[in-house]
Amino acid sequence: MALPQNRDQFRDWCLKQLGHPVIEINVDDDQVEDRIDEALQYFRDFHFDGVERWYLPHQITADDIDHKYIPIPDSIIGVTRIFPLSSTSSVRNMFDLQYQMRLNDLTLLTTGSIVYFTQMQQHLRLLDITFNGEQPVRYNRHTGKLYIDVNWNKIAVGDWIIVEGFIQLETSSYPKVWTDRMLIRYATALIKKQWGNNMKKFAGMQLPGGITMNGQQIYEEAVTEIKEIEDLIRNTYEEPPQFMIG
């Protein structure tokens, strides 16, 4: 069988890892689906392949100004920043610093060095950060609201802002997510834990042929495997810590 390309194939793949159909896996279908959802949640929270950097354009509405926040889709799990609502990099008129710099120096770039231009751009950015700073924002993905700490009276309906954040990969759009080996291992271990949890309630019961049920051992093996996989994901596959809101 080829690597799984959808949820049904992924479920069958995990069950085969546990011995199905040779061994009866005593786990309800709903329990299997719940464990897959649990594995996906952990995968998206901590594995660098579970999310991608995303830029969300948003046009300000009257409701946004009244509420003083903008709604964020559930698929966005974290917001890092918004592009400045105003900046010294915006060229507005002939008296603007950027305009004058480009007017006097840009023509020299075709014949001379760009070192001065690069240093000037860095200097202007330093001045912008020093005197204006980054735009403060507050976001929690459980509320789905991005609060921007700004004077909303200066924002007009129809203005655009761009939100930078991380969006979770949807399996419907990116079926290759189902082939990730860490996701497969983690989901399989979670299903195994559920199997052991179901079976350990019948510890010591003998089946025909003298077979004794030992769900406790299956449960303990799964707990150990889950701990090892979680540590591996956090230590090897998690992105380095960075400033992120939400």
Task: Please explain how this structure is put together.
The chain is of the alpha+beta class and 246 residues long. It has two domains: 7-47 and 180-237, no CATH class; 51-168, no CATH class. Helix content is 42%, strand content 15%. The chain is built from seven helices and six strands. A three-stranded antiparallel β-sheet has the order 1-6-3, with no helix packed on it. Strands 2-5-4 form a three-stranded antiparallel β-sheet. Strand 4 (137-140) and strand 5 (145-148) form a beta hairpin. The chain is elongated, with a radius of gyration of 27 Å. The two termini are 40 Å apart. 21% of the residues are buried. The model is unreliable at 86-91 (pLDDT under 50).
Mean pLDDT across all amino acids? 85
- The number of strands is 6
- From the alpha carbons, calculate the radius of gyration and give it in angstroms: 27 Å
Helical content band: 40-55%
- Residue runs with pLDDT of under 50 for 5 or more positions: 86-91
Shape: elongated
What would you call the structural class? alpha+beta
Main sheet, how many strands, which sense, barrel?
3 strands, antiparallel
Instruction: Kindly report the spatial arrangement of strands forming the biggest sheet.
Output: 1-6-3
The total tally of domains equals 2
Q: State which percent range the strand residues make up.
A: 5-15%
Q: Give the SSE string.
A: HHEHEEHHEEEHH
Task: State the helix count.
Answer: 7
End-to-end Cα distance: 40 Å
